[in-house]
From TrEMBL, chains A, B:
It comes from Massilia cavernae. It catalyses: 2,5-dioxopentanoate + NADP(+) + H2O = 2-oxoglutarate + NADPH + 2 H(+); 2,5-dioxopentanoate + NAD(+) + H2O = 2-oxoglutarate + NADH + 2 H(+). Keywords: Oxidoreductase. The keyword Oxidoreductase applies. This is 2,5-dioxovalerate dehydrogenase. It comes from the Bacteria. Belongs to the aldehyde dehydrogenase family. InterPro entries: Ald_DH/histidinol_DH (IPR016161), Ald_DH_C (IPR016163), Ald_DH_N (IPR016162), Aldehyde_DH_dom (IPR015590), Aldehyde_DH_Superfamily (IPR050740), ALDH_KGSADH (IPR044151).
Length: 525, 525
């Protein structure tokens, strides 16, 4: 399949005329072919109008039809073969094995949502029987959830397959019955076009209305804002910077009809090293930490950007082990020259901050955009006094905070902004301190880890990839895992409907075999 | 129990010093004793700080403890006896039977949430087993929901018991483990104090931290805004006007940390009269409609403010029956002189609107704030051309829209803003038209009724009292019924926690006997 630089609007393919741009290979800084055409406002309107037109038909598909559609997308992505991986490598600088793994993740995610759709628990069905003899009589009431309407998804730079055109946001919105308009990320437009065509083909072969999926190129300030403020759009999924996310949140809040924005933005993922755990394993934890920190040039939302520990021999040992390990890491290509430059700026700024010491740098790489890892240290008093030390540096940079005693752990935890993850390293001897810290971490983070590193994000039922602001703009949800579908749903109650009007999910004989809350009790019968 | 005009801040009782005001008996326009003292910003800070301090302890209560606390509040409200009903009658102008019924509703609501808490389905527990042999290994992941944090609840004028100090928002927030700070409604401060003391006493006798509940007097622009923008507050529940609700939505969105606002605001609750239904029952439906319209002076969020029907004999008969019935209705006291004045303004404005005809007025009542019912008529073309005709008039006023053919039904439905309810009157002969209209109504309303009137709102599991903007500020939720608890929760995932750190809900042996999703399958074992 060739890449033509086109917009995908419903079933059509056309070249955008608003402006032209090319992808850049971050390892060389050179432009790649072909030229991509950006969408104009008319393209935005057409994509949104088609999505609106498709909504009622699409959300009326059976669970089985919708699940098969998601599986077809997965298959079409696999069928793209090596061309997808090759293009993604060129555009993202990520290595082959990582991208093959990420393709597996994207495909697995689509298949998970196919299962979620078939299970139908997302429908949240409840039935309250009529009580005609009661005063006043109780009507027959039945509830199910339906999709919110057309959803705009912004592709993320750091997961060109798993959180982009057919990534988690798109999969969960489609699973919920919502048509999707993707704003492709400018860093991997060719990868986006290939995946977009795979989705477009699945829409056609599944006999669905063309407006179920569109994909536009263009920048966030023009095309992105136009999409978010289009009246047909009812929700937004975004993964990226705090600045970019908040621009969308503000735009959505100022619409005549405000809509929800699920922006996954900023997190430094604190790791609290409890004393006995550090005393037992400082060296091993230190080198493991650096492996997590430098994985994928540190370009994960869950990258460990903050380590909190009590000063003393164990921390010294951890620090030395981490510094030594870091010095042995050679910088790898970052996603874009811009991300590389922002990383360097962040590292420079942190190095100049009062009370902050540089502990170690990694080796510089040969690539034009190699991210040279950096490890810093400060003390708790200084950290608490300087909120800027809490700013996320996207990439392999981290700050160790030394505390004079463990009492400062809770103080630091309380001081922190919302996080995607919070980690404790502990042994059973740290039990009391862990029990004291846990409630604070629950208030601060979407996921709490023990004796592990936060960079792995499982796609499953019990995953939460979310958390209090500014980790996300809406802590009530997760953007990874089965629960992500709930973001795009709203409940509708049906009172005294005759059988011929009732959706299948709510019919008396439960033809879909759903778990339903019947008069307050959960049952599948 | 005497009413002293006090603020309830945690366990303390004190007279507010910011300003002084008295409740007004709307049936006479006269002030009632005693004087109430409004809160100052220091009072707001103290209440919010206490709520914050109470949060971790309160959310850590067992399901049984929390359920018993809710039941204790219910019992304490009942134990207030006739003094509560008498004061509520004086302050609201509502009749005794209605207020006794509403007390039953408030108490029933607290007891429903006690059951919801005990059932524990709101925890949304999910467990994914570790797969240590997989590459990469899968960690042990367990998810439960926890409360968002302290919640501000605004008492609603039109339900001084069921949607005020210990109403649906308070009950569902407390059920979810969130401390509550109530901004009492200025129209029924004495009723609020009585109920507030009942809650305060339940907090004390249940051995809970005092900050679980506070109640402040003061107006929305000062005390209300200060509460919504206080950093300790994590969510807001509100029922009232669109203007009032949107002021809170905007304030919450502009915080350094934006928080969710659940504002239930504006709905005109369209009723579509399908042709055969109208032909069969025009007279009966017409008089039933007027009973629903004038119930409680029309002061329900679900009051039927719009009727859509095809012109012709059946509509004429409906219109005449409704007009005759309306002329026989004597106006009853509205909630406040201000609401009465706003109703009169709205009726006057609608009467002067181009293309709108007054069909009938009810009788004026003897009370100073009697709401004189009003029924208007226009045609579809005029309705579609004038968005102002869609503005809610809070009170017993409704507009009939005559269509030239049934094809205009979908056009009008598409044109409408979001609604709490949408109704179809139909017979089986109207089946095709109903099937065509239903998907549009699903997109527009939180609850769809057949052959009934929307004013009754059952408190149960399958109820949705919510809907797309501007019916509410957040269509993903309901403010009435078991699902209301979901508004105040967020998911937390626990990765590889040792047993001694795991909350009971997530322990291996399922000590709470919860329904849990275990490796993707729902089970109680």
């Amino acid at each position: 399949m060739t890449i033509n630089g086109d917009l995908l609007i419903g079933a059509t393919v056309q070249h955008g005329t608003a402006s032209e741009f090319r992808a850049i290979d971050p390892s060389t800084g050179r432009e790649l072919l072909p030229a991509f055409g950006a969408a104009n406002l008319n393209d935005v309107s057409r994509a949104c109008a088609l999505a609106q037109q498709a909504f009622d038909t699409y959300r009326d598909t059976s669970l089985e039809q919708r699940a098969e559609f998601l599986e077809q997308i997965a298959q079409n992505i696999l069928d793209l073969g090596p061309v997808l991986i090759e293009r993604a490598m060129q555009e993202s600088g990520l290595p082959q094995a990582r991208l093959e793994g990420e393709r597996g993740r994207a495909v697995g995610q689509l298949r998970l949502f196919a299962k979620v759709v078939r299970d139908g628990r997302w429908l949240g069905t409840a039935l309250d029987s009529a009580l005609p003899e009661r005063t006043p009589p109780r009507p027959d009431l039945r509830l199910r959830k339906i999709g919110l309407g057309p959803v705009v998804v912004f592709g993320a730079s750091n997961f060109p397959l798993a959180f982009s055109v057919a990534g988690g946001d798109t999969a969960s919105a489609l699973a919920g019955g919502c048509p999707v308009v993707v704003k492709a990320h400018g860093a991997h437009p060719g990868t986006s076009e290939l995946v977009g065509r795979a989705v477009q083909a699945a829409v056609a072969s599944s006999g669905l209305p063309e407006g179920v999926f569109s994909m536009l190129h263009g920048d966030g300030r023009t095309v992105g804002q136009a999409l978010v403020t289009h009246p047909a759009i009812k929700a937004v999924g975004f993964t990226g910077s705090r600045q970019g996310g908040m621009a969308l949140v503000r735009a959505a809040a100022q619409r005549a009809e405000p809509i929800p924005v699920y922006a996954e933005m900023s997190s430094i993922n604190p790791m609290f090293m409890l004393p006995d755990a550090l005393a037992q394993g400082a060296g091993k934890i230190g080198s493991g930490f650096v492996d997590s920190l430098t994985l994928g040039s540190g370009q994960f939302c869950t990258n460990p950007g903050l380590v909190i520990a009590v000063e003393g021999n164990a921390l010294n040992k951890f620090r030395d082990a981490a510094a030594t390990a870091l010095q042995g890491k050679t910088g790898t290509t970052m996603l874009t020259p811009g991300i590389h430059a922002a990383f360097n700026d962040g590292v420079e700024k942190l190095g100049k901050a009062a009370g902050v010491t540089l502990l170690a740098r990694g080796q510089n790489g040969t690539s034009a955009s190699a991210g040279q890892a950096a490890l810093f240290m400060t003390d708790a008093a200084n950290f608490l006094a300087n909120p800027a030390l809490e700013d996320e540096i996207f990439g392999a940079a981290s700050l160790i905070v030394s505390c004079s005693d463990i009492g400062q752990f809770s103080q630091i935890a309380e001081h922190l902004d919302g996080q995607l993850t919070a980690t404790m390293f502990l042994t059973e001897n740290d039990r009391d301190a862990a029990l004291a810290l846990l409630p604070v971490l629950e208030r601060k983070a979407g996921r709490i880890l023990i004796n592990g590193f936060p960079t792995g994000v499982e796609v499953s039922h019990a995953m939460v990839h979310g958390g209090p602001f500014p980790a996300t703009s809406d802590s009530r949800s997760t953007s990874v895992g089965a629960g992500a579908i709930d973001r795009f749903l709203r409940p509708v109650s049906y009172q005294d409907l005759p059988a011929y009007l009732l959706p299948a999910a709510l019919q008396d004989d439960n033809p879909l075999g759903l778990w339903r809350v019947r008069d307050g009790e959960l049952a599948q019968a």
